């Protein structure tokens, strides 16, 4: 019975950012906030996006393009490229599910890069040890 309910939930309406709080306890991976510029390739077009948060299984992006749920995409943030599928989009924010999971090393590297980009924008220097935290 539980298995049937889960399948019905998965087949129901497309989730939105407002559903995030109720879905947080069902997520398979913890999310980390980042602020990384990136490109999203979809339907032969390349869009500038900003990664807002990520997990081993996916990411949330600020994206000006309107992409339908189920659209196959490629996320490229310079140091990492990953194939994914759009799962939801609402008010310029979209959720991706990666085709292959990020490992802990990749997530740590992206978090460090996000800290470095934020420090650069503020005009401050960040020591290498601080990027690891």
Key words describing this protein structure:
133 residues; alpha+beta; six-stranded antiparallel beta barrel; 4 helices; globular
Written overview of the protein:
The chain is α+β, with helices and mostly antiparallel strands and 133 residues long. The chain has a domain at 28-102: Thrombin, subunit H (Beta Barrel), CATH 2.40.10. Helix content is 28%, strand content 35%. A 6-stranded antiparallel barrel has the order 1-2-3-6-5-4. A hairpin with a 2-residue loop joins strand 1 and strand 2 (45-54). The protein starts with a helix and ends with a helix. The model is unreliable at 1-14 (pLDDT under 50).
SS-derived structural category: alpha+beta
Please identify, by name, the CATH architecture of the domain at 28-102. Beta Barrel
Percent helix among the residues?
25-40%
Which superfamily, in CATH terms, is the homologous superfamily of the domain at 28-102? predicted glycosyltransferase like domains
The radius of gyration is 16 Å
Helix tally equals 4
Following the backbone from N to C, one meets helices and strands in this order, namely: HHEEEEEEHH
Largest sheet: 6 strands, antiparallel, barrel
| Gap from first CA to last CA | 43 Å
CATH class of the domain at 28-102: Mainly Beta
Strand order of the largest sheet: 1-2-3-6-5-4
Instruction: Enumerate the spans where pLDDT stays under 50 for 5 or more consecutive residues.
Output: 1-14
Give the overall shape, derived from the CA principal axes: globular
- Beta strand count: 6
